[in-house]
Amino acid sequence: MMWGLLRNRRVLFVAAIVLALLAVALWPQAIEVDAETVARGPLVVTIDEEGETRLHHRFAVSAPVSGRVLRIELDPGDLVERNKTVVARLQADAPPLLDDRARAQAEASVSAARNAVGRAQAEEQRARAALELASSELKREQALAESGLTTRQALDARQTAVVTAEEAMNAARFAAAGATSELERARAQLRPASLDAGGRVLPLLAPVDGVVLRRFRESESVVPAGEPLVEIGDPSHLEIVADLLSTDAVKVKPGMRVLVEQWGGEHPLGAVVERVEPAGFTKVSALGVEEQRVNVIMDLDDDHAAWQAMGDGYRVEVRIQIWEAASVVKVPTSALFRVGDQWAVYVLDGSRATRRVVELGQRTRAEAEVRGGVDEGQRVVVHPPDTLVDGARVSVRP
Fold first, then answer.
1. Confidence check: pLDDT of 340 > 50
2. How far is it, in rounded angstroms, from Cα 276 to Cα 181?
């Protein structure tokens, strides 16, 4: 009997150890997680995009007439002074030589103009003779009127005839002068063209103070009228243009602050939104997706010495501040996850992770404003794993 009791106790003891080992093996392990504290602090919401610098104003010096532009000695970066620096020299073309057909037409024009002059001069002589006749008749009528041998009506008629003759004389004189001018113009077309007639060199002066941005022509060459030769601008007046998605551009207003980064300097630069262009355009992204973009123009408001190393067409990154607050309760966006149509986080409650639905306000890529659901000072799980469920045991990684 005694032996039986000892054997039963031994079996019970072994069974208890086995059950304890099974309990330990089957006991759920704590999930290792990372955690951060819900804190209060400033929050700035920005729209981030790449931008490009460009000059406020640029001027292209073009050839005023067709001709041969001489070699341009200025290099990009050279300083120019308004109305003093010669940026290019242009030798105007000589007038073209007349071929047989053009010469025949010019000779016919001269002959027609000479005939017109003859007709106008003859008309002038006729008008002068008519004026002299009307004047003599008026004198005779005035003598008769003094003797009382004519009527007042006849005297008025003679006076009207003189006035009419004078106007006809003036018209004939103007017609003769016009015909003479036409004759001179027709004769000018027949004058022989000299090859040296276009040798005059026209100096083209800089229209503004600034630097040479680029040369469209360097070596001597023949150019038509209106051909651009040199582009000039003032690098001390830079602006930044960034094309935003139209859905982001509607949130941007003139006067908003901008932070300029990744421009090559040690410190970010300050800028301000000047205007949002009213018209958008279609741009194909790197993934081949068509996007509607809108240009936003920003003015640098830092001292020129801070960014004088930048020039036209430099790449920068801009962060346009569309909202900011000095003190809000915020959580890392990496702690947020969706539960249906709501946002939620896992809050650490001792060694357990409790799921909480939260009400969010403004968000950035790194942080989000929390308006309800968690309190300042609580710790939340960041990057929660898929295996984490409400009430699960967790251990925080150091």
1. yes
2. 58
pTM of the model: 0.60
CA distance 87 to 206: 6
Report, in angstroms and rounded to the nearest whole number, the Rg of the chain calculated over CA atoms.
48
Give the DSSP per-residue string, 183-219: HHHHHHHHSPPPTTTT-PEEEEEPSSSEEEEEES--S
- In which residue are the tokens 């001489």 written? 70
Pairing of strands 79-80, 379-382: unpaired
Which helix or strand (DSSP H or E) is residue 24 part of?
Answer: helix 2-26
Separation of alpha carbons 213 and 79, rounded Å: 10
Please answer whether residues 211 and 234 qualify as being in contact, where contact means their C-beta atoms are separated by less than 8 angstroms.
yes
What does the alpha-carbon distance between residue 122 and residue 114 come to, in Å, rounded to a whole number? Answer: 12
C-alpha 157/C-alpha 13 separation (Å) is 159
23 pLDDT band (50/70/90 cuts)?
low
Question: Does the domain made of 61-94+208-233 have the CATH classification 3.30.479.20?
Answer: no
CATH number for region 46-55+236-325: 2.40.30.170
Residue 195 has pLDDT above 50, yes or no: no
Highest mean pLDDT among 86-90, 178-182, 231-235, 244-248: 244-248
Written as six digits, the tokens of 32 are: 């290792």
Lowest mean pLDDT among 198-207, 226-235, 306-315: 198-207
Amino acid at 238: L
The second-level CATH assignment, the architecture, of 28-41+327-396 is Beta Barrel (2.40)
